[in-house]
Structure formats: structure tokens, C-alpha cells
From TrEMBL:
It is an enzyme of class 3 (hydrolase). It comes from Loigolactobacillus rennini. This is DNA-3-methyladenine glycosylase. Zn(2+) binds at residues 7, 18, 172, 176. Its EC number is 3.2.2.20. The lineage of its organism: Bacteria, Bacillati, Bacillota, Bacilli, Lactobacillales. It holds the Pfam family Adenine_glyco.
């Protein structure tokens, strides 16, 4: 049996996430906003903790549907934090709620989250995990753009991680079996953007 080589940082229970979710390109506003919200929940925590809590978070908060968030009042949202299955952080929750309104304002300016993020696509070819920075110019750029658009909790580290999770940047190591698959998927998306 052939063993597929993964990125060196991957250990159980992250295998499934690495193999089927991480860096898979995402372009829809709803999915990108959900990833943005989950990135905020993860801030300061490990990916393992987030994955353990993710299903409950998504179920409780309607997969962070921006429209649902905008019509839900603060007290209703806050009451949901009584659930011990969740990451219970009031500041993060209100940042996500606030960001649903920021997204609406962004759309009113005829801009999209997808545009802002995918403008940062570029080729990557990291051979070892130590080459991957905490953030780079793309993370700084997105953080500045989102801050200007009044998004909260989106510094350069969070934004760089969002770009990686959403597949805008392929941070799989070149030796990883997922690297060429993600590259190919990115190419299809950037070609589609170029022709639209």
C-alpha cells in the first residue's frame, strides 16, 4: 500500500482536515464568511480545539450566515454562549456579528470578500514548514483592506491563515500529495476570474 506523504506538521486528528479541507479553494461569499468567522473563533487556540467545536458552532450560529446574524439581536446571540459545546468568547462572537454588517457595507460598495481575498493569489513552493511565515505581504494587505472596511479581529496573522484555509494561498509543502491538487484547483479558479 502506497502511503501518501502529508505536510510535516500534520498529526492525528488533523489528517482528515488536511487531506480534504485545508486549502481547498473557496470563492462564494457565504463560505468565505463562514471561514472568516471560524478563523476568529480559532484565534489564540489550536486548530484541534476549533475542529472539535466547529460542528456545534456552525449549527448554533446557522453556519455564520451573514443575513441571519444581521437580523439576530445581541441578547439572543449572547444567550447561545451558555452552551458548553462552544468556544464561549463574547468578544469573538460580537466581532463576527459586527463583521456581518461590515460585509453588507462592502457589498453596497460593489466589492466582495472573494475579490479582496483572491486578489492575493500567488504561486507558492514551500519545501519545509519552517519556510512558511506567520504572515506576509498578502496577510498585511488583506488585514488593511478589511480594517478599512470596518471588519474586526482580522489582523495579518488571521488574514494569512484565512488565505491559506480558503485556498487562495497553497501552503501545502511541495512534497505533500495535496500540493499539486490544490495548484490545479487554484488554476481553474484564477482562469475563471480572468475570463469573467
Amino acid at each position: 500500500m502506497v502511503v501518501k506523504q502529508r505536510c510535516s506538521w500534520v498529526r492525528q486528528p488533523l489528517n482528515q482536515f488536511h487531506d480534504f479541507e485545508w486549502a481547498v479553494p473557496v470563492t462564494t461569499e457565504e463560505e468565505l464568511f463562514c471561514l472568516l468567522a471560524l478563523q476568529i473563533w480559532q484565534s489564540g487556540l489550536s486548530m484541534t480545539v476549533l475542529l472539535r467545536k466547529r460542528a456545534a458552532l456552525c449549527q448554533t450560529f446557522h453556519y455564520f450566515d451573514p443575513q441571519w446574524l444581521r437580523v439576530t439581536n445581541e441578547d439572543t446571540l449572547l444567550a447561545k454562549l451558555d452552551d458548553d459545546r462552544l468556544i464561549r468568547n463574547r468578544r469573538k462572537l460580537f466581532a463576527i456579528w459586527h463583521n456581518a454588517f461590515a460585509l453588507q457595507r462592502l457589498h453596497q460598495q460593489h466589492l466582495t470578500l472573494s475579490q479582496l481575498l483572491w486578489q492575493q493569489h500567488k504561486p507558492t513552493a514551500f519545501k519545509v514548514a519552517t519556510e512558511i511565515p506567520r504572515y506576509d505581504e498578502s496577510g498585511l494587505t488583506v488585514a488593511a483592506q478589511l480594517k478599512q472596511a470596518d471588519f474586526q479581529f482580522m489582523g495579518p496573522t488571521n488574514c494569512y491563515a484565512l488565505l491559506a484555509t480558503a485556498g487562495v494561498l497553497n501552503l501545502h509543502l511541495t512534497s505533500c500529495w495535496r500540493y499539486p491538487i490544490i495548484q490545479e484547483a487554484q488554476s481553474r479558479i484564477t482562469t475563471a476570474f480572468a475570463s469573467s
